[in-house]
Specification:
Blueprint (H helix, E strand, L loop, with lengths): L2 E8 L2 E9 L14 H15 E2 L8 E2 L8 E2 H13 L3 H13 L10 E2 L5 E3 L4 H17 L4 H14 L27 H11 L5 H17 L32 H12 L2 H17 L6 E2 L6 E2 L4 H11 L5 H11 L8 H14 L42 E7 L6 E7 L5 E4 L5 E2 L1 E2 L6 E5 L9 E6 L2 E6 L1 E3 L4 E3 L1
Antiparallel strand pairs: 1-2, 3-4, 5-6, 6-7, 8-9, 10-11, 10-19, 11-15, 12-13, 12-16, 14-15, 16-17, 18-19
Helix pairs in contact: 1-12, 2-3, 2-4, 2-12, 4-5, 4-6, 6-7, 6-8, 8-9, 8-10, 10-11, 10-12
Length: about 475
């Protein structure tokens, strides 16, 4: 499938807005049943159970009730993916704001956060970054406004979570590569998406290294079952630590393969799913579970994380009885009341219902993020002289009140401006002019916490970025 290019002209320049694959499917792909509403119904239940603002210093988080109600970056990413396809922009923005609040110096989210917002581990987990980056690309296509975020995160993943010498995906930003990798993180469909979005070819080598490791496991360790281990090295052998059998990590392997064949008609993904379908159909859907790679033993069967993700590959099967058994199972057994199982169940429904369609059509009018009051000034009246406003001479001052983690942001602009937008780490929001000073614009909302020291201000359509310093004496930022 040829990438779809969209360009926009601005101030005489042609700017690449997005390069995305057309949503296409392999000829063998056929949904198991249901439709987008089937997915949305489960998403609504999942959101009610696991998404909360309680304990979130900003936005909202995905909670793990059985793990002291903590949050992991993986869960934030799952929620962002689901919110895009559910067309739920407020939830997407809330989760993304939470993720950014815990970005470390490498430019990615610390993977483990306590229920009260304390950082348990500030290192990054690659699978979460991959899912977040894909979600940002699709959010940019659906709602626009996420290009910079997507580019920055993709660049961070490539520079910190891909081993430079081998192009093997690392499990995190601080360890792994050829000596230790996690096949359930391999996302060849995403890697192709990143290249398409950025107009690069660098991710092709990561696609190759990922499928090479999968092939090595097939050739030497799994007797043709297609099963992948939780952890291995570049030859497919046992890594320094972690399970070397099909288990709770590698359960995501068929789900990630499905993205590659849905988005890019991948022959390799199709072939890998065919091996898995052959093996699992011989067992029966109820008996899919943890397993030795060669299929010699199975345990923890009849768990939704295992049969739901396996159903993603079943969409390529021509075995009617096997397909029907999968649909009967996945469509009737939500929820399990376990964060991990329910998250994978929900995301697998997106695949098996044929709803992972990234051709969102014309940009929908997004559900607005909570902006307290509409801009008093009407939509700008066309002026007789359409000459673009130049970068204004003069200056602007940013003031954040109510402390350095604040609920209030004000900008004073000299000379006077006709429009101001501000982003203090939450997203670009339209400011309203205050009554006490015609040159001062404000964003004020108890639903927004400005926690970033970098503030973006857009005056008359021209963007500026300033670094803000907190004044501990007055508890204000000055920028």
């Amino acid at each position: 499938t040829e990438p779809m290019l969209r360009f926009v002209a601005f101030v005489g320049l042609v700017v690449l807005l997005s390069v995305l694959p057309q949503s296409s499917v392999d000829a063998a792909f056929a949904p198991l049943g249901g439709n987008l509403q089937t997915f949305k119904n489960v998403y609504t239940q999942w959101k009610a159970s696991y998404v909360t603002a309680t304990g979130a210093p900003v936005g909202s988080r995905v909670r793990r009730p059985s793990n002291q109600d903590d949050t992991v970056s993986e869960g934030i990413a799952y929620g962002m993916l689901a919110a895009v396809f559910a067309d739920d922009k407020p939830t997407f923005d809330g989760l993304w704001a939470y993720a950014r609040n815990f970005f470390n110096s490498a430019g990615c989210m610390g993977w483990h956060i306590s229920s009260s917002g304390g950082i348990i581990d500030s290192n990054c987990a690659t699978d979460a970054e991959l899912d977040m980056a894909a979600a940002l690309i699709w959010a940019n296509k659906r709602w626009t406004g996420y290009t910079t975020y997507a580019n920055n995160l993709i660049n961070t993943i490539y520079t910190t979570e891909v081993e430079a010498s081998t192009k093997i995906l690392k499990p995190g930003n601080t360890f792994g590569g050829a000596d230790q990798t996690n096949p359930s993180y391999f996302a060849p469909g995403y890697f192709k998406l990143f290249d398409a979005f950025q107009g690069t070819t660098r991710w092709a080598a990561v696609v190759t290294s990922s499928y090479n490791i999968i092939a090595a496991v097939d050739a030497n360790y799994n007797a043709g079952t297609g099963l992948q281990p939780d952890w291995c090295n570049s030859t497919g052998a046992q890594a320094p630590f972690g399970n070397h059998h099909y288990s709770w990590d590698s359960v995501r392997h068929p789900w990630r393969l499905s993205h590659d064949y849905i988005l890019y008609n991948s022959t390799k993904a199709n072939q890998q799913c065919t091996k898995l379908n052959t093996y699992w159909s011989s067992l029966g859907v109820d008996n899919i579970g943890e397993a030795n790679l060669n299929g010699g033993a199975n345990w923890n069967t009849n768990q939704s994380a295992f049969y739901a993700t396996a159903a993603c590959c079943a969409t390529l099967s021509t075995n009617t009885a096997y397909r029907t058994a999968h649909w009967n199972k996945i469509s009737t057994t939500y929820p399990s009341n376990d964060y991990y199982k329910d998250s994978l169940h929900m995301l697998s429904l997106l695949v098996v219902t044929g709803s992972m369609n990234t051709d969102f059509g014309p940009a929908s009018t997004p559900t607005p993020t909570p902006t307290p009051t509409p801009t008093p000034t009407p939509t700008p009246t066309p002026t007789p002289t359409p000459t673009p406003t130049p970068t204004p001479a003069g200056s602007f001052t940013v003031l954040m009140n109510s402390g350095c983690n604040t609920w209030y942001l004000a900008v004073t602009v000299t000379p006077a401006a006709t429009s101001v937008q501000m982003d203090c780490g939450y997203g670009l929001r339209t400011a309203t002019v205050t009554s006490w000073d015609s040159n001062t614009w404000e964003v004020k909302d108890t639903g927004v916490q400005c926690s970033s020291t970098q503030t973006t201000v857009k005056v008359n359509g021209n963007a500026f970025t300033s670094i803000c310093n907190c004044n501990s004496a007055t508890s204000n930022y000055s920028c």
